[in-house]
Amino acid sequence: MPRVSTSILGISIVSGILSFVWAADHIPLYNFVFLPFAIRAFFIFDAALSIIAGILFILSFRLITIKILYLLEVIYWWINYLLLTLTRVLPAPIIGKPLPVTTGPALIAFILDVLLIIFSTILYIMINR
Asked: Where are the membrane-spanning stretches (predicted)?
């Protein structure tokens, strides 16, 4: 098993916790009955992917040799960020109009997406050095 530096381990754990917080921010959105079921199901699916991403971050001390996982993490968080921001400007799928800019879960998700993009990119670069 390769030796993992404490900085990589620290960033991994923080990123994993932030991924879990991101999922906790999205799971309650399933209960918004005024949203179409497809969007509510998407929130649950995306929250499940976020939990998996968090587990992969935290298990970096075991999975560090599978470098492609960390590139996939960067791509995943970029996709989440782009979905969040673009649906505020362009028509959202299924609804057909831009979503409202809120100060609730969308703002929390925006901040977490930016942090997770930064941390996952730093982690990917450190692992590939």
From this structure: 33-61, 68-86, 106-127
Q: Given CA atoms 13, 18, 20, 21 in this order, what sign does their dihedral have?
A: positive
27: left (phi over 0), alpha (psi -120 to 50) or beta: alpha
Distance of CA 30 to the CA centre of its chain: 17
Whether the per-residue pLDDT at 14 is higher than 80: the answer is yes
Q: Residue 51 in contact with residue 20, Cβ under 8 Å? A: yes
Determine the 3-state secondary structure of 92 from DSSP.
coil
The C-alpha atoms of residue 50 and residue 84 are separated, in whole angstroms, by 14
Asked if 87 and 99 count as a contact pair (C-beta separation under 8 A), the reply is: yes
- Structure-token pair, residue 34: 């005024």
> Is residue 57 scored above 70 in pLDDT?
yes
Cβ proximity of 61 and 10 under 8 Å: no
How far does Cα 20 stand from its chain's mean position? 9
pTM to 2 decimal places:
0.91
Whole-angstrom Cα distance, residue 28 to residue 49?
A: 15
